């Protein structure tokens, strides 16, 4: 049985021996990167700087929430606004692999700048087992390149440290609870962020649409879980599809966008089953998305596909 106490003690000791200089960590505020940051902070203290990059692809209110979390944890951090760089890198990109790799390379370039300024030699990442398994290793097929695996450039100057490499998501959550990290039960969020919840080119306008839709999905499912209508799913979000369908505005025919809702149950992200969200909850989500959003969305669909054959994210 996995023992989070033993893991933390062994890993902190290993990190003290491994990281001989300064390090930076790509910290998104999610469970994996936050746990990795706390582990390395225990090992080397002020020689670590957590760098949160505002890519322009984050969830609604994410940056301020991450700022408050870092303050509570006492980890040294810096917030970098690089949204312009990321949208420039994504311009014209519609292939999911190219999008992921463009994001991964841009992350590294930002961190290399930050590392030079801080004098860091090491880059810490919260890579976990499903990330490298699904990215392929020469034996397995590449299901999808995770930006912190498949997107790393070959000429990267920083030495890579990945303290969670062998862990699965449920084990990372156990470590988070042991460390007292408040995001231990937070739903997973992909490294490429909202860029892979826009099918097609992720530009500021389309990302803004899916950001609002994701916020509505989160608000309604979490409210339903609080009032006992359902159990909160393991992961839940919206996807903007490159599909327009016929709708009605007033008494006129119109074409509008389509939003897909995805909610799944899982333990380690390797397999997942779609959540059986009550119809009244789905109806509230649909009404809010079509009535509140100023994005001409006239159709909301629900994804009832398990993993496999689908992945959890659409890209």
Question: What's a quick, concise take on this entry?
Answer:
This protein has helices at 4-18, 31-44, 62-73, 83-90, 96-118, 129-134, 169-179, 204-226, 279-292, and strands at residues 22-26, 48-54, 77-81, 120-124, 159-161, 235-249, 252-265, 273-274, 297-302. The chain is α/β, with parallel strands linked by helices and 315 residues long.
Report on the architecture of this protein.
This protein has 315 residues and is α/β, with parallel strands linked by helices. It contains 9 helices and 9 strands. The protein has helices spanning 4-18, 31-44, 62-73, 83-90, 96-118, 129-134, 169-179, 204-226, 279-292; strands at 22-26, 48-54, 77-81, 120-124, 159-161, 235-249, 252-265, 273-274, 297-302. The two termini are 33 Å apart. 41% of the residues are buried. Residues 146-150 have low confidence and may be disordered.
Mean pLDDT across the residues is 89
- The fraction of residues in strands falls at 15-25%
Helix content: 40-55%
- Which word captures the global form? globular
Radius of gyration: 20 Å
Total of helices: 9
Which regions are unreliable across 5 or more consecutive residues at pLDDT < 50? 146-150
Question: Number of DSSP strands?
Answer: 9
In terms of quaternary structure, what is this? single chain
Counting helices, strands and paired strands, the structural category is alpha/beta
Write the H/E string, N to C.
Answer: HEHEHEHHEHEHHEEEHE
